[in-house]
Amino acid sequence: MPIHILSEKLIAQIAAGEVVERPTSVVKELLENALDAGAKTIHISTQDGGRKLIRVSDDGMGISADEVELAFARHATSKLSKLEDLEQLQTLGFRGEALASIASVSRLMMTTRHYNENIGTQIRIEGGTITQKMAVGVPNGTVVTVENLFYNTPARLKFLKSENTEKRHIVAVVTNYAIAYPQVKFILEQDGREIFRSIGNGQLADVVVRAVGLETFKHMLDVYAEDPAQDDRPPVRVWGYASAPDLSRADRGNITLFVNGRWIQDAKLTYAVVQAYHTLLMTGRYPIAVLMVEIPPHEVDVNVHPTKAEVRFRDPNAVFSTIQRAVRMAVIGKANAPDIRLRGGISSTSTDTTWNLGNPRPRTSELPLNMTDTGQYPKKYAPDEAFDLSDIPEGLGLPKNPRTLPMLRVVGQVGAMYIVAEGPAGMYLIDQHAAHERILYEQYMARFSSQEIAVQHALSGQTITFSPSEASLVMDKLDALKAVGFELEPFGNHTFVIRSVPAILADKDPVTVIAGVIDDLQADKQPGMGKIEEKLIRFVCRHVAVKAGQILNHQQMQDLIRQLEFTRNPHTCPHGRPTLLHLSGDQLAREFGRGG
Ligand code: ADP
Ligand code: MG
User: Fold this and answer.
1) In 291-431, which ranges are continuous DSSP H helix?
2) Which domains are seen in the chain, by residue range?
3) 141: Cβ below 6 Å to ligand 1?
4) Ligand 1 atom 12: residue of nearest CA
5) Which ligand minimizes its atom distance to the CA of 72?
């Protein structure tokens, strides 16, 4: 083939790959356009996780009839005209690529009317070619409908994630923008069902409650810090919500950051949040946070990547340390006074715990900056009042296994984490959490295999409310959850009535356990691998098992060891970590230079 210049259409299709990776990217770009157009209400609806249809309607300024076609040209934008404009950018868009890209890989229809004009325009574009354009009478605003995304780029189509994954990502994008723009009302519908709605009253807390669910929000703390201007560096402000140390997640995916209203992905800033919890969370656990960073536009370069999800700061350290300090102050404040909770109820009218975006209420009780850790267990890990191992009925489906460990005698507990025991063959150090997980897992699995899961029926009709994305996951897994003993009944609005829970939960708070299990499921790195029921059982055991940090009395320890001695596989927990270390009498003698 001789060298030749690619056609505009092909260039657009190739370039589209950078902007439109997946249905979620289309939602994101269309939302950004609606927000840039000053919309007060944005309605998003999708079908089949956006593959079949994505529609975003807004009541923003609209596009004037003579500019509609131009909007779909590559590098056509109304938001920037010279490079310096980037320094003062007030809009989310500026590259003029989104509409052209989306239109080149889908069947698109836009209906729009500029607020200054009497008649609107409807335009249809298929794979980048305009097939129809006409004047129509429509309300002010813009509706973009994207159908059959990637119909003409089969390679892209093949790499799409599952419908459910995509649906969850779309929920995340919409809820995140709703959080960043609390003064805008967002409504998300998926396959005809309303999944999320914000009220647009400007109250950050109201949106966050709807996005993360009320249960989670109850464990969130106000964050606010301001780094005053210094020499040549203007002030940096951080505000939002971060979870108290008693709430954590299995991955970093729940740390959401915005810079000047733009949702960004930044590993370093995410790390700043994680760092703020140093010593307060167990390793492998991460906080939930929704944080707004406000910084003068010229201090941040948003033109790093076509998806605009990465930014560069002129002074990254200032941003890092402000975030870390803001979160640390909030969390330490909490850790020292465990029962400080958000005051008052959370309702759409509550004002005492909330503030307007762009006008954060400074905290008056800011703590000294150079706080040091106490090095003690946070209060959270103090002994659990209600915990009693003997509540787990002995022999609850425990198979009459042969003994797999010698009979052990409990000596004591170390660090509220390990049990020291002695047996005929030396000393054993047992990880109480891992060991209990193993015991529960085998009991539970035995019951499950023989289809005899013991359940407790709830009479009181307790409910649990999830975030929108969790709720859709729960809907997907209702049958599997039921098979392992959780009968949940959809109650609308991401709320479920808890009809039954597995008896293994005994005196645990079912809401906490279910929330934890769903969180684990969402963070599951290998969604397809292994039987879903088995996974659920493992997750339940993890949340029900005695925690590291719980002080056990002698009887509790002895019970735990006794049950471990009869498990099939006493040496590892269901997740594969060791449950015990063994030091033989010989090893001990050698270490002490005895005998030999
Ligand atoms: P960018 O947002 O980077 O400018 P886009 O391709 O997303 O590029 O959009 C091109 C132009 O079309 C925008 O600059 C804007 O003028 C116009 N536009 C797009 N969507 C809307 C909308 N929902 N309402 C009003 N104008 C819009
Ligand atoms: Mg745009």
Assistant:
1) 316-336
2) 8-200 (3.30.565.10), 206-334 (3.30.230.10), 379-583 (3.30.1540.20)
3) no
4) 71
5) 1
